[in-house]
Fold this protein.
Amino acid sequence: MILFAGLAILAGVLVSLSRQINGRLALSTSAMESSFWNHIVGLGFITAAALLFGGLFAGEPAQAPWWAYLGGPVGVIFIAAGSWLIAKIGAAQTAMLIIAGQMISGVVLDIVMGAPGNPWARTAGVALILAGMWVSHRGKTR
Amino acid sequence: MTTPTSAPRFYHFAAAFGTGGLLTLMVLFNGTLAGFGSLFFASWVPHLTGTIAALLILLILRPKHTSAVRPPLWTYLGGVSGGITVMLTSATMNTALALSGTIALGLAGQVAFSLFADMRGLFGLPQRMPNGRDYLSLGLIVAGSLILIFFGGSA
């Protein structure tokens, strides 16, 4: 259990590490080029891992709805934006605001799709996140 | 080495917040894909189509290099770190941690390492010392996120 908890924390560390490395590459090149290298190097790595472990095409991937295949282009913008932002507002602010945006849009998506959830917890969570963004914004921008 | 940094502007905040919204879409798309195919497939496909999309955008926009000096080789390896993340997440998701625990602990790791990196100015990025206001803001956002992850039904 402690091992898996450690691995889950490590996964978060690697998200931040990846954004920093991509951000450094974007400083010398451009955010979009950084996103390109992130994707092609990641593609090579995952292909190698899939060949090693097998099962890449397991299941019924052809049955998935067409829109499920749109994650790639969205990811390109996501990585480019993160690479650009990290040099402008720092790793912690970037992480924090991306998390805030993910959480709040996640709640909106859940409500739109009619996913079950506790409305009080949703309200409290969104309110705390908005308060945190307000505190940060008041202190930083001009 | 590092570029001079200006004060963060409102559009930086708005862009970062919107980028988080993109992540929700990616989780929806890639997660749906994982429901039909393997976890490898759900990460392999977006990397493949993303590579093609990024290449097309580069060919059309031809963004200028901000520096004539070639960056060190390790700066090209961000994708490896991202690939390992996928594998770690898929390994922990099906344990007692479940998806919510995996997300919450990942969030903690991400925030802690980001703060450390800012303080040290790791990897040639600008150094920043977080102040009390930063910690307060961070605490509020993490607290709100944990409530949503564990009680909001959005995990």
The CA atoms of residues 118 and 128 of chain B lie 5 Å apart.
